[in-house]
Amino acid sequence: MAAGVWAGVWAEVPAVRVDWAAVAAQCAWAGAQARAFLVVPGIRLLVLLSLAMTVMILLEKLFVAAVCYAAKALGHRPERRYQWRPIAASACKTGGDEEAGLGGGSAAFPVVLVQIPMYNEREVYKLSIGAACALEWPADRVVIQVLDDSTDPVVKDLVEIECQRWKGKGVNIKYEVRGNRKGYKAGALKEGLKHDYVHDCEFIAMFDADFQPESDFLLRTVPFLVHNPDIALVQTRWKFVNSDECLLTRFQEMSLDYHFKFEQEAGSIVYSFFGFNGTAGVWRISAIDDAGGWKDRTTVEDMDLAVRTALKGWKFVYVGAVKVRSELPSTFKAYRFQQHRWSCGPANLFKKMLIEILENKKVSFWSKLHLLYDFFFVGKIAAHTVTFIYYCFAIPLSVFFPEIQIPLWGVVYVPTVITLCKALGSPSSFHLVILWVLFENVMSLHRIKAAVTGLLDAGRVNEWVVTEKLGDANKTKPAMEVLDAVKVIDVELTTPLVPKLKKRRIRLWDKYNCSEIFVGTCIIICGFYDVLYANKGYYIYLFIQGLAFLVVGFEYIGTRPPTPSAE
C-alpha cells in the first residue's frame, strides 16, 4: 500500500532535463571571467615583479664588476689598504724538530688555534690534519684542535690514531669529542672554545675536513689581525682539486669563482663586510666573544656570526691571493643537500635578524641598507626567486596567454648581460656558459623551495646533512679495506663466512628526481604549444631548458659513488 503511494508521488514529479549546452556555456563564461580578471592579471603582475628583480640583480652585478675592475686598475691590494708586515722570527715550523731553532723569536708570534671540525670524514681526514700540522708557525704558539663528531666508531678510531701520530712528532694537537651532536658544526666549534688551553689563544684558523691550506697560510693572514685591531676576520679563497672531475664540479667552480673573485672582493673593498664562508678563514677570538659566540639557530652558523660581528662595528678583509685547496661535491645528491642548506639558512637568518639589523645603533644607515637590500634581499632571496619564477614558470606559462607580452630586453638583453657578468669569474670555462645557465635554472627549483622554507621557518629549515666528500672513493680500494666492511661472525665451519647478499630494492621516486622530471615535462609541453599555436619564439629556449631538467631528473649529472649491493 505504502509502496504504491510513493510510486504515485514519484510518477507525478516532472522529469528534470539538464541543458548540457547551457552548462558548458556557463562554465566557459566563468573560465573566461577568471582568465580575464584573475589569471592574466596575476601572471602579468608576476612578470612585472620578476622584471623588477631582474633589473635589481643586473645593477648589483654591474656595480660589483665595476668595483673589482676599478680596484684592479688602481692596483688595490689588501696589503696596501691595511697595515701588513711579516712577523719576524728565526724559524716557524709546527714540528718539534724545528723548535730548537726558534730562540727567543717565537714570542713575537701570537698563539693561534687551528680548528678542524669533522664528521665521519674517512676519505679526507688525513689530508686536512696533515696540512694543518704542516703550517709554518712556532710549535709553542699554535694548537691544532680536531673536533670529531663522528658517529662511525671505525672512523673515530682512525682520526684519533692520526692525531696521536702527529702528536708523537712534536705537534701540539688535541683530539676532542663530545657526547652529542647538538648544534652540529656550530655546537662543535662552540664546545671547542671552552677548553682551558684555548684561553691563551688570540686567533682561530678554521678549516673543514676537506680543506688543505698551504704551509704559509698563517704567515700571510695573521699579520692582518695583528697589525689592525679593528679587523675581525681574514677570509681566503677556495681552490678546487677536483673541478675537472665532471660537468657538475665544473659548474660549481664557475659559480664559486665568481663568488670569490667578485662578490667577496667587492664586499671587502666597499663595505669591509662579506659573508664568512665557514672555512679557510682566520678569526679574532675577542670579536667572536663580542658578537655573542657561535649560535646554532640556523644552518648557516658562519653567516650568522659574520652578520652579528659586523653589527658590532668590526671589519672583514678578503685576501684572494691566498688559496686553500678543497673538494667539490661530485654527486648530485650531495650537491643538492648542500644547496638546500646554503639557500634555506640565509633566508631563515634574514627573517630572524631583520629587526635586530634595523634597530642596530653601531653601524651606519648605508651599512644596514647594504646588509638588508644587497646582501640578503638581492643576493639570498631575489636571486633564487626570480631565477625559477621568471625563467622556469612565467616565461613558459606566458605562451598560453597572448595578452601577456614580455619585452625583449627582459627576455634577452638583461639576462644576457647578467650571465656575461657572472661568467667573468671563470674565463676559461666561457664555452660552458649556456649549459651552466641551464643547470643553474634547474637548481633554482631547489633553491626557491629552500628559501621559502627558511622564510616560513618550516619543514626542513634546520636539516643539516654533511656534504659528502669522496676523496679517492671512486678509485679501486685495497682488498683489506673492502674486507673491513664485511661483518665477522662466529659460525660453524659449514656456515658461509660471508653473510648472504640481499638485493636492495630501490623505489622509483628514490632512483630519479621526480620534481625535475615533472617541471621539465611541463616546460617542453609549453615549447610545443609555442611552436603549434602561440608563435612567440620561446620554443628554442623552452626545449633546451626542459631537456636540462630531464637530464638532471634522470641523474645524468655528476658522478656515481660506489654503492653497496647488499644491506
TrEMBL record:
Subcellular location: Golgi apparatus membrane
Keyword annotations of the record: Cell wall biogenesis/degradation, Glycosyltransferase, Golgi apparatus, Membrane, Transferase, Transmembrane, Transmembrane helix
Membrane topology of the entry: Multi-pass membrane protein
GO biological process: cell wall organization
Domain of life of the organism encoding this protein: Eukaryota
Gene Ontology CC, one term: Golgi apparatus
Transmembrane segments: 45-71, 371-391, 411-439, 512-532, 538-557
Record EC number: 2.4.1.32
InterPro entries for this protein: Glyco_trans_2-like (IPR001173), Nucleotide-diphossugar_trans (IPR029044)
Residue stretches making up the Glycosyltransferase 2-like domain: 204-407
Main localization, broad class: Golgi
Gene Ontology MF terms in the entry: glucomannan 4-beta-mannosyltransferase activity; mannan synthase activity
Catalytic activity: GDP-mannose + (glucomannan)n = GDP + (glucomannan)n+1
Family, per entry: Belongs to the glycosyltransferase 2 family. Plant cellulose synthase-like A subfamily.
Protein name: glucomannan 4-beta-mannosyltransferase
Biological classification of the source: Eukaryota, Viridiplantae, Streptophyta, Embryophyta, Tracheophyta
Gene this protein is translated from: LOC123442209
